[in-house]
């Protein structure tokens, strides 16, 4: 069974969905550890409730490298095979990415390559798109540029508000992440250049 770590910065609804899928037996992996760079991230409470080791690693007043060194120590301690970025709002250094090459996945709240950055839903909305969605991708050294594992489409409705659009989008995220993690854990993903081949 693969050991996974979930890195968060906030509310942790994606983390919750991963916990729930594991509990329901729909996702077979060991959620070994949760790490947050924010002390008040509600995701830490969710992890503790589920009895998963949870760490707050403050990024303030230390260099990016020092911060990541502390995280990597924890990942090593728990023999982590896959690092899942679930609303982790920090950019990883090339060192971290090389250390876990092709073993870090991120969820982004837009259909990449459109609207990379910190406000995928807001940017999709402001642009007046007719479809939005989310993307799960491997993390490479660019910002939201790694090979795409899967995408879910969220068409906009005439009566949508940004809030209603986001709410539906998050629901899709909660399906997409466990799906992608399952594919990784079953060894069904193969990166070929920009493409991720998914075997049956
Ligand atoms: C999610 O919408 C996720 O896609 C987004 O942060 C939110 C975290 O929600 N991630 C990014 O924007 C990464 N650039 P959650 O804490 O409730 O899972």
TrEMBL record:
<feature type="domain" description="Formyl transferase N-terminal">
    <location>
        <begin position="2"/>
        <end position="181"/>
    </location>
</feature>
<feature type="active site" description="Proton donor">
    <location>
        <position position="108"/>
    </location>
</feature>
<dbReference type="GO" id="GO:0008864">
    <property type="term" value="F:formyltetrahydrofolate deformylase activity"/>
</dbReference>
<feature type="binding site">
    <location>
        <begin position="89"/>
        <end position="92"/>
    </location>
    <ligand>
        <name>(6R)-10-formyltetrahydrofolate</name>
    </ligand>
</feature>
<keyword id="KW-0658">Purine biosynthesis</keyword>
<dbReference type="Pfam" id="PF00551">
    <property type="entry name" value="Formyl_trans_N"/>
</dbReference>
<dbReference type="InterPro" id="IPR002376">
    <property type="entry name" value="Formyl_transf_N"/>
</dbReference>
<dbReference type="GO" id="GO:0006189">
    <property type="term" value="P:'de novo' IMP biosynthetic process"/>
</dbReference>
<comment type="pathway">
    <text>Purine metabolism; IMP biosynthesis via de novo pathway; N(2)-formyl-N(1)-(5-phospho-D-ribosyl)glycinamide from N(1)-(5-phospho-D-ribosyl)glycinamide (10-formyl THF route): step 1/1.</text>
</comment>
<feature type="binding site">
    <location>
        <begin position="12"/>
        <end position="14"/>
    </location>
    <ligand>
        <name>N(1)-(5-phospho-beta-D-ribosyl)glycinamide</name>
    </ligand>
</feature>
<feature type="binding site">
    <location>
        <position position="64"/>
    </location>
    <ligand>
        <name>(6R)-10-formyltetrahydrofolate</name>
    </ligand>
</feature>
<dbReference type="GO" id="GO:0005737">
    <property type="term" value="C:cytoplasm"/>
</dbReference>
<keyword id="KW-0554">One-carbon metabolism</keyword>
<feature type="binding site">
    <location>
        <position position="106"/>
    </location>
    <ligand>
        <name>(6R)-10-formyltetrahydrofolate</name>
    </ligand>
</feature>
<keyword id="KW-0808">Transferase</keyword>
<comment type="similarity">
    <text>Belongs to the GART family.</text>
</comment>
<dbReference type="InterPro" id="IPR004810">
    <property type="entry name" value="PurU"/>
</dbReference>
<dbReference type="GO" id="GO:0006730">
    <property type="term" value="P:one-carbon metabolic process"/>
</dbReference>
<feature type="site" description="Raises pKa of active site His">
    <location>
        <position position="144"/>
    </location>
</feature>
<dbReference type="InterPro" id="IPR004607">
    <property type="entry name" value="GART"/>
</dbReference>
<dbReference type="InterPro" id="IPR036477">
    <property type="entry name" value="Formyl_transf_N_sf"/>
</dbReference>
<protein>
    <recommendedName>
        <fullName>Phosphoribosylglycinamide formyltransferase</fullName>
        <ecNumber>2.1.2.2</ecNumber>
    </recommendedName>
</protein>
<dbReference type="GO" id="GO:0004644">
    <property type="term" value="F:phosphoribosylglycinamide formyltransferase activity"/>
</dbReference>
<dbReference type="InterPro" id="IPR001555">
    <property type="entry name" value="GART_AS"/>
</dbReference>
<keyword id="KW-0378">Hydrolase</keyword>
<comment type="function">
    <text>Catalyzes the transfer of a formyl group from 10-formyltetrahydrofolate to 5-phospho-ribosyl-glycinamide (GAR), producing 5-phospho-ribosyl-N-formylglycinamide (FGAR) and tetrahydrofolate.</text>
</comment>
